[in-house]
Amino acid sequence: MTAPRLPTYFLSHGGGPWPWIKDQFPGDLDRLEASLAAIPDDLPKRPTAILCVSAHWIEPAFTVQRNPRPPMLYDYGGFPAFTYEIRYPAPGSPELADRVTALLRDAQIASGTDASRGFDHGVFAPLYVMYPRADVPIVQLSIRSGFDPAEHLAVGRALAPLRDEGILIVGSGLSYHNMRGFSPAGRAPSIAFDDWLTATLTESDPDVRTKSLTEWEAAPAARLAHPSEDHLVPLMVAVGAAEHDRGVRTYHQDDFMGSVAASSYRFG
User: What is the pTM of this model?
Assistant: First the structure.
């Protein structure tokens, strides 16, 4: 019997250590939390490991985390002291890291490895909600500086075989990420971009979807939604790994952080 193929996800991962201090954030984070907590039951099988592409790890070349016991990387500031002592003790997987490296090499995509990298909050915040027992191995893959959408789509294509090997591929970013725009002034541009993104991901034919993503800067309010696209390109990896699969929006609210639209998506 053929093992079920896992979908891929693009997650709006929230801000900083939000699952531990929800009451200190503006707006309602219950919908985001519920959407993340529902993912394990929505999968056709329990993943043997997770490959997470976080917006918070940027390198000159794609880099694979190869640490069997990743430490914590508190890449945020201004939060209560206890949030710098949070532990999410999920194991790493050098075996998966080696498989990712081999797939990228076979696709002629240059990559490196990092044996000391820890989990940043783009990983441990959403995955804590998904798997609070920290009992699924996790490997991080960096995004590449320059943020070329075609390069990140190509990485996803190269990694697509992992879906048949029990590996859950997660792109972790935000569908809207303008740090100066988390205010009432950001509401209209965030909705305009979110509407375009959702239609592109869930209604377009695959070829049209891919082309639209490579030309995302032409979307309504694109640069108001993403002055820098670091939080958008993890989406490209998730789409590339499921390029011919339909997209479904799994989370949405138009008052994220009290003011803007945000969404998450599943492919396959």
Answer: 0.97
